[in-house]
Amino acid sequence: MSFERPIGAAADVKELEYIAALIQTTDSDKEGFVDASIDARDIKYHLRSRYGIRISKEQVRKIILSGLGGGESEDDCLDLCEVVAALMIPCLRKLVTDDWIKSDSSESFNEESDGPVSVVKSNPEEESDDEQVKDRLFHELVSTEEILRDVLSNILLLATGSPKPQPLTKELVRKIFAAFDENSLVENDELVSEMIAAAGGDALSEDTEGGAVLFNTKTFARVLTSDIMLYDPSVENRYTSNFVDAFSPAPNEGGQNTSITARNSSNEIDMSEGIDAQDAKKNALGTVGDGAKVAFNTIKDDALSGLGETVIADTEYGKITKEFTFSTLDFTLDNQRSRFHVVSVWFGFIAFYLRYFYNQGNEHSVCSGDGFGCQVGQSVFNWTIVMLLLCITGVIYFAVLGSGNDVYRRSFLDVFIGVAGVLVFVVFPLIPEFQFRAAFFSTISENPSDDIFHVTAVVVFAIIATMNLYFQFTNAIRVLFSDETIGRSKFLSRMLVGSITRDERHFKQAAVFKVNRMMDNAFKLHTKDKPGGPTSTHDLALLNFNKISDKTEPAPGFFWVWKSFFNDDLWVKEGIWIHTRLLAGMLGQIFVVILIVALYSVASRFWIDDYAENVLGEQSCKASFDVENCIAPQFNGINLGFITCTEVILEGDGCSSNQIREDVLKTLCEYIPPHPVTNETVCDNARVYSFETEYASVTGENIQQGDCEAQLTACFSYEINDDIRRAACVLGIGPNFFIPYRFEGPLCESISPINSVLDSMPKLFRQAETLIRDLSDTADDLIDKILPDIWMLRLAATVGLVTGLIVGISIFVHYIPSTVSTVLKFRSGVLPSLRDPGFIKYRKSLEGVTYILGLMIWGALSSALLTVVVFAGVTFLVVWKVTRPFLVKIIAIVIGIAATLTFKSILVTVLGRVNYAAFYRKRPWIGNVSGVALECWHLGLTTGYMLARTIKLIVAALLYVGRVDTPFLGEGIGNIGPVNLDAFPTIYRKGLLSAEAHRHPYIERLGYLYLLKIKHGSNFATASGSIWRLLFV
After folding, report:
1. In whole angstroms, what separates CA 740 from the centre of its chain?
2. Measured between alpha carbons, how far is 362 from 375 in angstroms, rounded to an integer?
C-alpha cells in the first residue's frame, strides 16, 4: 500500500489532469483527450448523470461555456487553465464583502499601500462548531492579499515593464492580452470594454486617474469578483446538497423556492383565465368542497412531487428540466440521504436472500433421469430461477424499503411505502398467520420454532426491522422541514441531515481546502528564491516547478487512513468518497467471517467427538452394572452367549442417541428384562435404544475398572435423573452381526454368571475368537500407529480457525486503506490516467461494477475458508505420526540450507563491497571466480527455491483470493488473448473511478458552478470576468 507521490504544484497538475480524464466522455479524439479539454458533451452528460438535468449541448455552450471562458462555438471547450479559473471562483468570492464591492470608498489607495482586502464573513450561527472553525482555518492557508498584489505586479510587469498601478484603459488591456499571447482577444473591442466596465463598480471617484479606473489591488479584486457575487460562501458550511444550494433562494433573495421540492410542472396553475374568473369559480365551490379539493390537491402534489420532469430554469435558449432518477436506487454515486439507511437495506436483502431464496428452484425438475443433457437443462433452469427471483424481487425490495431516502423527493407517501415494505418483507414472513408457499418462494420455516437457525433468523430480522423503522421515522420528521431549514440549524442538521448529505458538506470543505492548497503551492513557485526588485516571477515559477517535479513524499499509510476515517479528515481534507457499496460489502464480510467461525467451531467439535467415539472408542455413554442383577438366558439348557441385567447405570448424553432397528428388536425382544417394579416388558422401538461400540463395566466388591466388561446391546430406561439413567439391558452381543460372547477382561471367567456364558462357548468359536483377537491386536497396533490422537485434530482445527479468522479480519481492515491508496495513486499520477492508453479500459463496460458487492462478500468467505482448510491440513501433517518423520527431515534440510544461505549472504555482502561499484567490477578475477562458484552452487539449490516459491505463491493466493480491491497478478500477467484471468480488480477500480467522476471535490465544485450558471444565466460568471480570472491563474 505504501508508495511515493509527488508534492506541491506538481501533484496539483497531476490531479487536474486526472479529473479531466474522468470528466471527458469520449476518447475517440486522442489529441483532444490528451489535452484535457472539457467540451459541451462532457458537461451535458455530467449534469445528466449527477443531477438528472436534461440540457442540450447548445444550451451548455450558450449558458455555461460562454460564461466560464470556453466560448460559444461548437468547438469551444474548457482547458485546464479555464478549469482552474472556475475552481478559484469561491475562493476569490471570499476576498471581498458585498458592502465593500458595492459602496463608495473613501479610503485612499496608493502605489505603496493598496489597503486591506476584506475577507467575507459567514453567518456567526453557521460558524459555531469545531468543524466550522476548522473550515475557517482552511481559508488562512494562503494570504489572499499578498497573492493578489503579487499577481497584479506580474501582470503589469509583463504588459508595461513596471509594477506600478496604471489607469485601466483599452490600451492597457490590449497590452495585457499581448503579453499573454492572447492575440485573438486584442481586437475584441466589446470584450475589452466589458472588462473595463467590470472594474468600474458603483464609485469611481476615489480610484480614477485621468478619467480611468486606477488598476490597483482593489480594482483587481473588483474585476475578479464583480460577476460572481451571487455565489454565497455560507453554503460551504451548510448540511445541504449542491442542488439545494443552487436552486433554493439565498437568505437575501426573495421569491419562491425553486428547488425540486416545488410542485411538478404538470401541476402548475393555469393563469390563462385571469384572476377574476378564478375567484368566481372559487366562490362557487363552497367552503366544504373547496377544502376537500385543497386536501386532495395537497395529497396529489405530495405524491407526484419530483416525479416526471420538473422545469428548473426557463432560459432564452429553452427550458432546462430535471427528470426523476429513482435516486434511492442510485448506488453508482450514493445519491441518497442516509448511508446507514442504504447499508441496512443491503444487509436486509442479503438476509432475505439467504433465508427465503437460497437454493430455490432445485426442488422443481424439468426432466427425469441422470443423463448429462438432463443435468445441463436442470442447471440452466435452476440458475434462471435464481436470476429472475433476485432481479425482480431485488428491485422491488430496494425501491420499497429504500423509499423515503430519496435526496430529491420529500413525501409522506414515500415514508408510508417504506414502512409498508418493512412489514411485508421483514415482519410478516416471521408471523405464522402470514406465511405462505408459492411456486418458487416460501416463507414457511422448515425448522422448529426452537431451532437455533430459526431463532437466529428471527433475531436478525427483528434488528433489520427496527433499523429500517427508525430510518423511516427520521424520514417522516425530515419531511416537515425544508432542506434549507435543516441545513442552517445546528440541532436539526445533527438529527435529520443524513450521513450522505453530511458528507456532501465535508466535500464542500474539501474543495475549499484543496483549492486553497493549490493556490498556496502555486504562490510558492513564484516566491521561493525570489530575487529582490520589481521583476516578473514567471520564469522563476517554471524553474521552481522543474525543481520539485521529481520530488516525492511517502503517501499516507494504513493507520493514517483509519485515523482519518474516524476524525473525518478523509472527507474534509482529502475529499475521498467512501462508497456505500464498500461499507455494505465490509458488513457482509464481517457477517460471513462470524458465520464461518461459528459453523466451523460447531462442525469441527462434532467431527472430533464423533471420531473419538466411533473410531477411537472414547464412549460418550459410560455404563456399569452389578452381576448380582444379571441372569444368563438359556435355550433347552444351552447358554445363549449373553446376559440380561437390570439396574444398569448409564451416564452421558450418548446413551439414548440410537433408536434400535426393527430386526434387532424382534430378535431380542423376549430377552429384554421386564421393568423391575411394574414387571412390564418393553418392546417399543421408541423407548428401546441400541448401541454400537459401547461396553459396560462390571462393578462389585474387589472388582476394578477394566477387570471385566460386556458389550452393550440394547436397553430401555425406566428411571432418569439428569444424565444418569437406570435401565434394563441385554449385554454381550455385537448388535451389527449378532456375535455373542462379547466379554473382555482378565476376570470375566471368574465372575458369575459371565463365567457360565464363557464356559459354554463352543471350542470352534473359542478358537476363532482367539484368532480374531490376535489379528485384532495386530490390527490395533497398526491402527494405533496410523490413527491420529485427539489433540492432533484439535490443534489442527484450532490453528485453522485462528488463521482463518485472522485472514478474514485482515481482509476487512484492509479494504478502506487499499481503496484510499488506489484513489491517491490515481490522483497523484502514480497510476497514470490522462496520457495512459491503458486508462481507457476503465471507461468501458461500467455495468461490471455490480459484481463488487458479491465479490467482496463471497471473496472473504472463500479466502477465509481456504485458509482454514490449508493451515489446518498443514498443521495436521506436521503433528501426525505418519507424516511427522518426513516433515522433520524436510525441516532439518531447510534449516541446513538456511544456515548455508546465511553464510552465503555474509560472503556476498563482503564481496559486493570489495569488488563492485554499481554495475562495474573493481577486481574482475574475483568476480569471475566467485560468480562461477555461486552459479554452480545455485544449480543444485534452486530446486528448493522453486518449491519455496510455489509455497509462497499459494499462501499469497490464499490471502488475496478475497481481495478484489487490489491486483494479485502483475500488469499483463494472466492475459490470454482477450481473456483476463483476474478481471475483478479492474472492475473494482472502475467502481472507484465512477464514484470519483461524480464525487471528486473539484468535480463537485464545477458541477455546482454549472448549476449556478443554469439558475442565474448571464448574471453569474460572465465572459469578461472569466478572462480576468484566467489572467489571474
Report:
1. 66
2. 11
974: left (phi over 0), alpha (psi -120 to 50) or beta: left
CB burial readout 694-723, b (16+ within 10 A) else e? bbbbbbeeebeeebbbbbbbbbbbbeeeee
How far, in Å, CA of 609 to CA of 615, rounded?
Answer: 10
Residues above pLDDT 90, as percent of the chain: 16
Distance CA 905, CA 631 (A): 80
pLDDT at 780: 59
Q: pLDDT-based confidence at 819, cuts 50/70/90?
A: very high
Task: Work out the average pLDDT over 45-68.
Answer: 90
Answer for the pair 694, 620: CB distance below 8 angstroms, yes or no: no
The three-class DSSP label of residue 553 is strand
CA–CA gap between residue 1033 and residue 1025 (Å, rounded): 12
CA-wise closest residue to 1004 among 379, 383, 90: 90
Q: What pLDDT, in 10s, does the model give residues 385-399?
A: 888 888 888 899 999
The CB density around residue 510, as the number of other CB atoms within 10 Å, is 27
* Strand partners for 318: 315
The grid coordinates listed for 974 are: 494472466
Quote the CA–CA distance of 630 and 728 in Å, as a whole number.
10
Instruction: Tell me the three cell numbers of residue 968.
Output: 494479485
Q: Do the beta carbons of residue 540 and residue 522 sit within 8 Å?
A: no
Question: What is the rounded CA–CA span in Å between residue 394 and residue 858?
Answer: 18
Say which DSSP state 330 is in.
Answer: -
pLDDT, residue 55, reads: 92
Mean pLDDT (the chain, rounded): 79
Of residues 50 and 610, more confidence is placed in 50
pLDDT digits 0-9 by tens, 824-849: 999 999 999 888 888 888 888 888 88
Task: Give the rounded distance of the alpha carbon of 790 from its chain centre.
Answer: 41
pLDDT at 260: 41
Q: Give CA–CA dist 414/462, Å, rounded.
A: 22
Distance of CA 73 to the CA centre of its chain: 43
User: What DSSP string runs through 725-784?
Assistant: EEEEEEES-BTTTTB---EESTTGGGSTTHHHHHHTS-HHHHHHHHHHHHHHHHHHHHHH
Distance CA 344, CA 811 (A): 21
Residue from 18, 24, 21 nearest 39 by CA: 24
pLDDT score recorded for residue 126: 44
3-state secondary structure of 718: strand
> What radius of gyration do the chain's Cα atoms show?
41
Question: Diameter of the chain by CA atoms?
Answer: 146
At residue 639, the 3 state secondary structure works out as strand
Which residues lie closer than 8 Å to 953 by C-beta, 6 or more apart? none
**CA atoms lying within 13 Å on the CB side of residue 349:** 23
pLDDT digits (tens, 9 = 90+) for 301-323: 555 566 667 888 888 889 999 88
Contacts of 904-911 with C-beta under 8 Å, sequence gap 24+, read 904/934, 904/937, 908/934
Looking at residue 327, its amino acid is S
Q: 3-state class of 250 per DSSP? A: coil
3-state secondary structure 105-141: CCCCCCCCCCCCCCCCCCCHHHHCCHHHHHHHHHHHH
